[in-house]
Design goal:
This protein is mainly alpha-helical and about 150 residues long. It has a single domain, classed as Rossmann fold. It is built from 5 helices and 3 strands, in the order H-H-H-E-H-E-E-H. The protein has helices at about 15, 20-35, 50-60, 75-85, 125-140; strands spanning about 65, 90-95, 115-120. Strands 1-2-3 form a 3-stranded parallel sheet, with helices on one face. Helix 3 packs parallel to helix 4 (about 75-85). Bound molecules: 1,3,4-trihydroxy-5-OXO-cyclohexanecarboxylic acid (DQA).
Length: about 150
């Protein structure tokens, strides 16, 4: 699940976010999903409520959430509240190392719910986060109730 401005990945500040597009990230995630035989849904929106609606959908039909909420990471109590309604693993992903950047990026509401946080691994962070979410589901260390 990707938040605002991530539709411009590859074009937006490539010196920070790299030159791969969001479609490349999706393809990378799909190849990891195929490796493990899991289904994924890949989303991006610039609208906070759409992210919240997708989190609610995941309550019904999702086992884990990977989220790069973009700048909503630093502002959205509403997304934190939505994630707190979800029982499965939540992985927070940031392409850039937010701790090396402006101070306002150092605080994340999402981290208060996340089971893991990846930052500064570039777009590779998505695949790493997905592998971790699958591992947590497989070893049963997080009890997941779908629906
Ligand atoms: C980001 C970091 C955020 O601070 C920023 O607002 C983004 C992208 C990242 O992936 O590094 O939009 O989440």
């Amino acid at each position: 699940m990707n938040g605002p401005n991530l539709n411009l990945l590859g074009k937006r500040q490539p010196e920070i976010y790299g030159d791969q597009m969001l479609a490349d990230v999706e393809a990378d995630c799909r190849s990891v999903a195929l490796e493990f035989g899991v289904d994924i849904r890949f989303h991006q929106s610039n609208r906070e409520y759409e992210l919240i609606d997708w989190i609610h959908e995941a309550r019904e039909s999702g086992a884990a959430i990977l989220i790069n909420a973009g700048a909503f990471t630093h502002t959205s109590i509403a997304i934190l509240d939505a994630l707190n309604t979800f029982d499965g693993p939540v992985m927070e992903v940031h392409i850039s190392n937010v701790y090396k950047r402006e101070a306002f990026r150092h605080h994340s509401y999402i981290s208060q719910r996340a089971d893991g946080v990846i930052a500064g691994m570039g777009v590779q962070g998505y695949q790493l986060a997905l592998r971790r979410a699958i591992a947590l589901l497989q070893d049963g260390s997080i009890d997941v109730r779908v629906g």
